[in-house]
Amino acid sequence: MSIKAIKNISQVRGGSQARIMLADDGKKYVVKFQGNPQATRVLANEYLGCRLARMIGLSVPEPVIILADEETIAEQQITFTLAGRAVAACPGLQFGSLVVTDEEVWDWPRHSMFGQVHNRREFAGILAFDKWTGNADGRQVLFHRKLHQRKFRATFIDFGYCFNAGEWSFPEAPLRGVYAINEVYEGIQSWDDFAPWLWRIERFSAKELQCIADEIPCEWYGERSELRRLLSCLLERRSIVRQLVEDFRTSSRNPFPNWTAECPAPCATEASGELRAM
Ligand SMILES: Nc1ncnc2c1ncn2[C@@H]1O[C@H](COP(=O)(O)OP(=O)(O)OP(=O)(O)O)[C@@H](O)[C@H]1O
Ligand SMILES: [Mg+2]
After folding, report:
1. SS3 breakdown of the chain: % helix, strand, coil, rounded to 5?
2. With a threshold of 0.70, does the pTM exceed it?
3. Sheet of strand 140-145: strand arrangement
4. Domain segments of the chain: what residues?
């Protein structure tokens, strides 16, 4: 049984017009609703993207499927502003991202922050991940810490435009899906920095992918056959992630100024697995 949204706390910035809501498990979630101005598929993208990223070891808030029924939407006045008019959100299952509750939370880092990011190595991992999933948006990150902490943590959010948003296609572009500021990549020196992440992506099992996909409510995306096609693309793309990272590395942006190894990208290890018919 899914958890239930009970109280609207606030609206957050952004194209999907998400809300922070209190749920009946006592936790707060950033909730993206069906019928939002971006596309309902961003809910499917968020859920699949967050689950996959967490499985390969990246810092991503826990994703949940959360019910906001008709009564709650009416009572809590959950509406979108579309062309200046308020339109009620669609009742049903929605996507929730557990709110990062540290005392200091930043959407955009101050210059001096980068050196103080505890898990900075994960920027190599999220880059590989965004290439794998064809993220059509710039990479979004929250930098946060508790009051007594000196260092920040980077937590990766917003997977709504993975798989090319509502399109579920993979047009390649070297500068897509990357972080806006090169500094986060400064520590990257060789393929060794990508190795743990590439290893997990290239060996990601078809069965696990299928299990996560089975949890996604079909009203978030449409036809089962389309989801099946998306999963097949993802399995196929496991073996080209190295090349996609290489295309970014050798792009005009020169994102890894401290790159030392001249050797070409090592070949992807053999990945296999069939999807069962859905
Ligand atoms: N798990 C979370 N914890 C804390 N804050 C969050 C979380 N998820 C999102 N936010 C906040 O909500 C804002 C909007 O989230 P998000 O970027 O996912 O929405 P969006 O509608 O896709 O925005 P945009 O279209 O501008 O990219 C973020 O900039 C961030 O400040
Ligand atoms: Mg965003």
Report:
1. 35, 20, 45
2. yes
3. 104-106, 140-145, 153-157
4. 3-98, 104-249
